Each structure stands twice: as C-alpha cells, then as structure tokens.
Amino acid sequence: MSRADFSDQFPPEIAARITGSVLNEGRATVVLDVAGLSDEQRADMERLIQDKLEAREDVGGVRVVMTAERKGPMIIAIGSGKGGVGKSTLTANLAIALARSGVKVGLVDADIYGPSQPVIFGSQGQKPDARDNKPVPIESKYGVPHLSMGHLVAPGKALAWRGPMAGSALGQLIEAHWSKDMEVLLVDLPPGTGDVQLTMIQKFKPAGAILVSTPQDLALIDAARAGQLFDTAGVEVIGLVENMSGYACPHCGEVSDPFGAGGVEAAAGKLDLPFLGRIPLDIAIRQGSDAGDPPAAGDSSMAEPFLRIAERLQAWISAKN
Ligand SMILES: Nc1ncnc2c1ncn2[C@@H]1O[C@H](COP(=O)(O)OP(=O)(O)OP(=O)(O)O)[C@@H](O)[C@H]1O
C-alpha cells in the first residue's frame, strides 16, 4: 500500500477537500471531507473523482470515503442549574460584547422551555430561511447571527417534546448554515441537566462551559450539579458568573442584596473553578432585554460587567486556539 497524491488531477475546490489518498494494487482510496456540502454536491464530487481516477492506467478501481469532520466554530455552552437566573441575558450580552471586539460569534438558543433570545434580539416572529433543509441564521443589528427554538416552533409547543425530538432540534440549530469564518458559537442551554444538555455534550462536545447562578444557596447547589455533568463528560468549566448580585436602589442609591452577595465567588473557590465576574441586579438590564436593546450593545455603565466577562472569555478562547 502506498500513499498517493492525486490532488493535481482535480480542481482546487475538490483538491482542498481531499484529506488522504492511497493506491493499493490498483485500488485507489480517496478520503474526502464533505462537511457543509449538500447531498447533491457530495454525489457530484464522488462521481468526478471516480471518473478521473478510473481513467488512469494504474488505477483499476476507486473508493471514495466521505468524512464530515466538523471544523466549525468553537462551541461554548452557557448553562445554569436553575431557571430564571439570567442565563439567556448573559449569553446574549456576552455574544454582543465578543462581536464588539471583533470576534465572529453566533448564538444558538437551545432553551426549549423558554426561548428568550428572539425577544432579546428583537427577532421574534421571524422565520429563518432554509437551504438544503438547514436553517440560515438570522442576522441581527448587533453583529450576532442567531437561531432559536423560538424561531422553529410556536411558543409553548416544544414543551411537550421528548428527549430525542429536543436533541434533534438542537442538532438542526447547531448544524445550520453558520458562515465559514464563524469562530465561536455560544449555546444558551435550558436550565438543569436534562436531555438537551446530554445531547449537547455527547454529540456536539463543547470546548467549554460557563455556569450562571444567583448568589443564594439553592441556586448554587444546582449550579454545582450542572458543573459536575460537564466535568464528568470532560468539558472544561471555563468559570462561574454571579448574576443579580447587589441591588442599587434607583431612588436612594442604597445597595441591598436580595439574593445575598459573593456566594458564587465563594462557591467557585470551593469547587476550584475560575470566577468570571458579577452582574448587578438592575432594572435597566431587564428593560433593555425586554425591549430588544441589550445593555452590552450600548455605552452605559450596564455594559461594563458584560464587557469584562467577555474579555476573560476571549482570553480563554485565545489560549485554546
Ligand atoms: N442582572 C439582572 N438585572 C435585572 N434583571 C435581570 C438580570 N438578569 C436577568 N434579568 C431578568 O430576569 C429574567 C430572567 O432572565 P433570563 O431569561 O436571562 O434567565 P434564564 O436563566 O435564561 O431563564 P430561563 O431558564 O427561563 O431561560 C428576565 O426578565 C431578565 O431580563
């Protein structure tokens, strides 16, 4: 058996996809990376390779092995143990903050129980176009193309889905037509440790995960459980974020801590995980999110905590690359 280089026989767009070739007693085997190609394009390429090589005197038969090695964006999951702790708010604002610093980033809203990204991005009611049966992400004015369960099904419909359906819907969103130069895909997971999280870990192993929690004990215990799931599956927990910590009264300025304060940082210390930062409880964050005007897109003081956490995430991403 000997390695053979057939690449000069093919046009560059095919040669670039040939990841290996072997000639063994007149039988040629060509390994073709078909990621991102439609079934028709795959069949055309296979035929062209077979015709070209079969025409050679030294080749008696040709086998084309197709692989779809995912070379797509780095997937980063944003999870939480409990619902309502601000996971979607963090995911959207982190994505916007990364985009502001030049990262090519997309967002997948995999929260079938409460897809809120269409509201945050002001894209509710829009239906993504489809090409080759795959959705095309919806552009946004914040430079973050996104796709949500909320774009695929009517509100409340997905609630009754069983595991495999939820998993395959997640697959559709992740394997959508993300642009070739997309570097990072942030995935807003449903809260807890259910089917969607398991599919995410098994099928689309994220490079890392961020966990969000409010500072009170119960939320923290659940967050630690979610962290364990990632850890067991060999997905690095990039760090913990404390949301809704410290409430500054808009009238008198006095800071109170409805959910306690500092609990997430302390928990991160105990679990030996990095602490990425805290986001205060501020009505402007809720109002901006509900109005499709996420704070990280603006220049108010509310953008700052998100920009700082995004900087830490970017440092982690750079170290990985
Ligand atoms: N720091 C904050 N200050 C004020 N309001 C906030 C803050 N973080 C989130 N919220 C608001 O709290 C509500 C829940 O937040 P969000 O939807 O981001 O949570 P979630 O963890 O994704 O919830 P779910 O599990 O339902 O998806 C939203 O109305 C959001 O605008």
Question: Could you explain the architecture of this structure?
Answer:
36% of the residues lie in helices and 23% in strands. The radius of gyration is 23 Å and the shape is elongated. The chain folds into 2 domains: 2-67, GMP Synthetase, Chain A, domain 3 (2-Layer Sandwich), CATH 3.30.300.130; 74-320, Rossmann fold (3-Layer(aba) Sandwich). Strands 5, 6, 9, 10, 11, 12, 13 and 14 form an 8-stranded mixed sheet that branches. The protein has a 4-stranded mixed sheet with strand order 1-2-3-4, covered by helices on one side. A two-stranded antiparallel sheet has the order 7-8. The two termini are 35 Å apart. It has 321 residues and is an alpha/beta fold. It has helices at residues 12-15, 39-54, 87-100, 117-120, 149-152, 163-174, 195-203, 217-232, 263-271, 283-290, 303-320, and strands spanning 2-3, 18-24, 27-33, 61-67, 74-80, 105-109, 130-131, 134-135, 146-148, 184-188, 208-213, 236-248, 255-256, 275-281. The structure holds adenosine-5'-triphosphate. The site of adenosine-5'-triphosphate (ATP) has 20 residues, from helix 3, strand 12, strand 14 and helix 10. ATP binds at residues 81-88.
